Amino acid sequence: MEGVCSGIKRAKYHCQQGLQILNDSACMSVVKPMDHVKKCRAYDCPPSWELEPWSSCTKTCGGGVRSRKVVCWQTTVTSPTEKQLSNFCSTIQPATRESCNLETCWGAWKSTYNIEYK
Known about the structure:
The protein contains no helices and 9 strands.
């Protein structure tokens, strides 16, 4: 799974008899053990680009521009998301602007009514 370089392993207890899982009230005669939480694979993820969706195009035809926010992020053991300087990401920064709706703008036929009286 991309971006997951550290995490926790959690052991949760439930009431069970044989292979059947029971309602917790069926085990009330015994104290329920505390859930166990253990850190696993605790190392920093490499920085990577986070891309926001493209904005709407500035024009419907004839050539417009759309843009998006591109940020270098890193998931670390101490911080779930940490913004980094662009030069921390090892790959080329994806585009933040691009051309869109390059088709020629064409006119459209409209009808008009002329009423003639004779």
